[in-house]
Amino acid sequence: MTVVVERTEVAIIGAGPAGLVLAHLLARAGIDCVILEDCSRAHVEGRVRAGVLEFPTVELLRELGLTDRLDREAMIHRGVEFAFGGQRRRIDFEALTGRHITVYGQREVVRDLIASWLDRGGALHFEVSDVVIHDADGDRPSVTYRADGRSHRLDAAIVAGCDGFQGVSRASVPAGALEVAERNYPFAWLGILAEAPPTTEELIYSSHERGFALYSMRSPTITRLYLQVAPDDTVGHWPAERIWDELATRLPTDAGFELRQGPILETAITAMRGFVASPMRHGRLFLAGDAAHIVPPTGAKGLNLAVADVVVLADAVERFLRRGDPRGLDGYSAVCLRRVWRIQRFSAWMTAMLHRFDGGDRFARQLQLAELEQVTTSVAAATSLAEIYVGLPFERR
Q1: What is the Cα 87 distance to its own chain's centre?
Q2: Of 152, 297, 332, 355, which one is the catalytic site residue?
């Protein structure tokens, strides 16, 4: 069988935010790379995911010349609101940190990244299959795959595993080489995308006796909403009327709240988990983003954490390939994991503070309310939340 042999400096597996941002960073440094993606372009660009971009994430995209559409269409949020006990209280990010967040859907980010990459002549192969990583523990790794009915082998100096939680990259690491820490939460999120103009200008996190709810948005005409549900629930149990009724129960406060309704475009249930695999490296294979870690979505950190990983990885790869300095690669996992665990702590704290836990007693509920009272009235507590929510600085040389 004829095998098409190709050569690149970095083989990137996965065309999600981690892989695409890494490709742009490497290209800026003059490093050749090829992206392999097992899904179609339409599927990759159509996936509904997170929509909150941290301040450093947007600044990085701007450095890369990738914010033309974002600057026209994104929404700037200078704070966030917490609803509890019949009231809403706002935390002012800009007053506390001088920074803000940007609401711009992950699929919009991915569309921008793909369009720019292809416009620049970047190599990106969709709908590849049978991806296998070879000799990751040596100095000449390769990736074999099938595309267009032919077998291919991609030789590289570095392999970047950016293919998500279910991808082949982490699964390629030999048994026992990774240590896994995991927490599964006893609830899930029902995500709702609705064609309805937003009621408010900023996100509302609601801690209600019936369960958590989040009011968010994707554009001036599209609302993104979430409801805490049972982990074994299904979207079939949630017709439109029930969704709107439950949101109308969990979101209103004494300050008033107009829940604008419209056609529901999409619903999906997402499990809540925290997961970290370490180290984030095996030989010349480097894991980034969801391939290495998952955070519960309460703190809106998944995409941003993936970007932080590849900022570190791109710098390390450049130092190694251009200067022969392996120290960045050797330190990659430790540098990334410091941030990963800070964000895991933040996301776990937000999740515990806002969600209803089955079997929780009145004492536990009052502790949640006291925590919300503290974080929305203490400048020190609010600043601590705001600093992480708007985004920790990237670790860059």
Answers
A1: 30
A2: 297
Global confidence as pTM? 0.95
Q: Is the per-residue pLDDT at 1 higher than 70?
A: no
Q: What is the pLDDT of residue 288?
A: 98
Residues 100, 293, 301, 355: which is the catalytic one? 301
Q: Which one from 104, 215, 226, 389 is the annotated catalytic residue?
A: 389
In the set 104, 185, 205, 215, the catalytic residue is: 205
**What is the tally of structural domains in the chain?**
1
pLDDT at residue 397 tops 90: no
Catalytic residue list contains 205: yes
* Domain that includes residue 65, residue range: 3-80+105-181+273-354
Round to whole Å and give the CA distance between 189 and 229.
6
215 is catalytic: no
Task: Find the mean pLDDT for residues 258-270.
Answer: 93
Domain assignment of residue 243, yes or no? no
Contacts of 13 (CB under 8 A, 6+ apart): 19, 35, 36, 131, 133, 143, 159, 160, 161, 162, 163, 167, 168, 169
Q: Within the chain, where are the H helices?
A: 17-28, 41-46, 55-63, 68-73, 93-97, 106-119, 168-171, 240-250, 302-323, 327-354, 362-377, 379-390
In a domain, 31, yes or no: yes
In a domain, 365, yes or no: no
Question: pLDDT digit string (tens) for 133-150?
Answer: 999 999 999 999 999 999
Residue 134 a catalytic site member: no
